Amino acid sequence: MAQGTQHPAPEAPPRPARVIIVEDDERLRSYAKGALAAAWDIAVVGDAGTLADGLPLVDLMPDLALLDLGLPDGNGITVIEAIRTKVPACRVLVFTVFEDRASVLGTLKAGADGYILKDTSADMVLAHVRATLAGETPISARAASHLLSLVRDEPVAETAGPDAPHLSPRERELLEYLARGLSRKEAARVMNLSPYTVAEYVQGIYRKLHVKSRGEAVFEAIQAKLIRIDRE
């Protein structure tokens, strides 16, 4: 071997995504932990069954929080708000039964990134966690029907008010698809756009609406009558 030949150092394996779980039902919490435990790319760094015990987990700087809304000592939305303040890059996947309509609206406004129901299979819990970490917004079919009902029950004008932020027709179309639960890749396919173009549109939407997540964007757009998601 020639003198002085140097071989590149082997690349370090990627760091597992740090996940916290806040769920008051011990059985479901163990179920969720078990669903993620065997994944090489995920590390559950903390779990809690109450709001009081869940809030300190935010200081662990998680990459994702799997979060129940109905905690015995408070609302899980408080955890979302703490995450958005302390760890804004952390993704939030709500793990819920969708019993409370007000909680759904509050969760959207607080900026959750995904919504799955508690009867989701273990394999799908893992898949949804990975999708959320990858920047997608998983919404189960039944959860999407709850979101649609929120809009169907409210009078929504066809045109936005004069003070509403301006979104281009393509931005509105994209946001409606995202509000219905399509991933960015799926929306790109439906709209015949490249994923890169869709990503640019998303950043433009966030900038115009002054938000940082899809949930916040959907909430603000519905409130401003920029979109409606009850079209057939």
TrEMBL record:
Residues the record lists as 4-aspartylphosphate modifications: 68
Q: Which residues form the signal peptide?
A: none
Stretches assigned to the Response regulatory domain: 18-133
Q: Which UniProt keywords apply?
A: DNA-binding, Phosphoprotein, Transcription, Transcription regulation
Its protein name is Response regulator
Q: Does the keyword Transcription apply?
A: yes
Q: Which domain of life is it from?
A: Bacteria
Q: Which GO terms describe its biological process?
A: phosphorelay signal transduction system; regulation of DNA-templated transcription
GO-annotated molecular function: DNA binding
Provenance organism: Erythrobacter ramosus
Q: Does the keyword DNA-binding apply?
A: yes
Q: Where is the HTH luxR-type domain?
A: 160-225
